[in-house]
Amino acid sequence: MKIELLTTFIEVSQTLHFRVAAENLFITQAAVSSRIKQLEDELGVLLFDRSHKRLKLTAEGHRLTKHANEMLIMWQKIKHDVGVTHGAKTQLFIGAMMSIWDILLQDWLQKIHRNLDDVQLYTHTFSPLELRKQVVSRLVDIAFMFEPPYMDNIAAEKISSVPLQLVSTDSAAQVDELENMVMVDYGESVNTQYMRDFGENASIRHNMSQPRVALNFILEAGGCSYLPKQMCFEHIRKNKLHLVAGAPQYSRDIYAIYLAKSNKLDLIKDALQLFPYLR
């Protein structure tokens, strides 16, 4: 199986769109379709449900996602170990939940690029359970999550506390009469606070895993959602979004986890120092 088939599959599984995946991979949409078809033929299963307007992963596609990520990471490590990777750069493998990439990590990657020019970055998206496994198995050097595990061999460092505020496309929205609420999954602690504060008024129209997806959705379709303060600042200035008066505010702590005895500990510390984090 060719590595580019897995790379293409991962990109399509994340974007759920052949055209967007093609743009991200700098290849044609026809090439993306051909690679996915070749991968499906080799495995003998359908990886995507194409019967609806929006592409969906099949059950087999979901199962492949985990293995594909692991195989790509292992391949990069193999290339490094046997000297196939060009140059003498140090590799840093970073994993995070999808929503945390949106909230926090984009600017941080740019800082690593500018300040640690001998570092080669590899980024991947995992569920919280998979992130822990990837760190323990040394496939990921640094992982970012909302609730860190309590394990003797894992170090956890709080790198940010993100304010969440309720915003709406309706300037007259009332906290006790919310319409078209889009709930973003920020972890159990925030979800529990929301249900406690809103009680019977906790009417949720849609549930989404990524704040960026929720933001784009309500800007297009109308509605309200709890979003990171820095993500909706510009939209509030332009009166596209409005703070809902009297709504409780939440915050979401984000942690970096890594092996306490990692052979890249100095590099990990240097990279984390580039966060404008709150302690």
TrEMBL record:
Record-annotated HTH lysR-type domain positions: 1-58
GO molecular function: DNA-binding transcription factor activity; transcription cis-regulatory region binding
Keywords: DNA-binding, Transcription, Transcription regulation
A Pfam family per the record: HTH_1
PANTHER family (alphabetical): HTH-TYPE TRANSCRIPTIONAL REGULATOR, TRANSCRIPTIONAL REGULATOR-RELATED
Family: Belongs to the LysR transcriptional regulatory family.
The protein's name: LysR family transcriptional regulator
Originating organism: Saccharobesus litoralis
